[in-house]
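Recap from last week: sequence in, structure out.
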Amino acid sequence: MSNPVLVHLTRASQVESTHRGAVCVVHANGDMVLALGDVDAPVYPRSAIKVLQALPLVESSAAEAAGFTDKELALACSSHSGEPFHVETARAMLAKCGLGPEALACGTHWPLDPRAAYALAASGKRPGRLHNNCSGKHAGMLSLAVHLDAGAEGYEHPDHPVQQRIRKTIEEIAGQTLSPAVCAVDGCSVPTWAMPLRAIAGAFARLTSPDGLAGARAKAVERLFGACTGEPVMVEGTGRFGTGVMQRLGGAAFVKGGAEGVYCAAFPELRLGLAMKIDDGARRGAEAAAAFLIAGLFRDRIADAGEIYDIKLTNWRGHTVGDVQPSDALSDAIATLTSDTA
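Predicted C-alpha cells:
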C-alpha cells in the first residue's frame, strides 16, 4: 500500500518536495477516528514513546524514592537539546541515584541546540554523555535499576529487568505482544519495538482516560503528563516545535516526536491519541503534518498552523520564497476529524 502525500512544499507556485506518510487517530473508547495511509504496518516508534518508557519509573516509586522533581521527570521523557539546564538536570538525576555520567549508555553527540553546541566548542570542550538528547531518559532508567536493586550494568539490554518492565508496560498499554522478532536497537542503545501506528495511537488514547487504567498507572500518567506539559522546555528545548505546542496548549496536549519522522500525541480534553510516520523519515514532514492536525483540532485556540509552526520558506536574505501546505488528503482528513470531534 502506497501512503498518501501528507504535506508538500512549494516554491513560487510549483510543488518542489512532498512528504508521504500514514496517520492514525484513536479515541479513548477504542474507536479509530482517522486512518490515513497504512496504519497497520509496523514502525519503530523510537523516542516518540519515551513517556511510556518512563511509566515504570513512576509506577515503581523509583521516582519518588529519588526525589525527582517535575523538571527531572519531564527530562526523563525528553529528547532534549543539550542546553546547559538540560545537562545539569540530567547530572542531578544521576547524583540522586548515587551515579555519575559514566553510567550512561546512551553515547555522545553535540548538543542539538546550535547555540549550546557553539558555546561548548568555543570553550574548547567536547560533548559528553550528558549532552546526548536521551540522557534524561537513561538517567530515569538507571534510577529504576537502582531502585529495583537490578544493577546499573547492562541496563540498556533487552534482557535487563529495567527493559523487561518497560516492554511489559508498552505491551499492556498498546495491546501488543512484543517479541524478539520486532526488537531493534535505538540510536541511544536501548530497545525499540516495532508496532502498528494503530496500536501506538491507541496507547496514547488510553493515556488520556485514567478510568481505564489501574490506580498506580493512572497516577503515574497524571504525574508525567503534568510534569511534561508544565515544564515543556525540558521535553525538547528552546524554540522547538513540541515545546512551543505544549507552551501554547498547556495540559490540553502532550506531544513528542521521534527519529525517522515519527510523531505521537495525546489530547486529554478530546480523549484522542495520535501516531504518525513520515515515509522518508523527515522531521520537517512530521512536524508540519502534526501542526496542521493540531491546529485543526484546537481551532478555537489556534487560528492556523502558522501560529505553531513556521510554514513559510525563506531564503538567506529573509525573503519568503515558498511555503509548507497540507495535501488535499490531509486537509480532507482534518476536516472530517474536526467535524466528528466538534
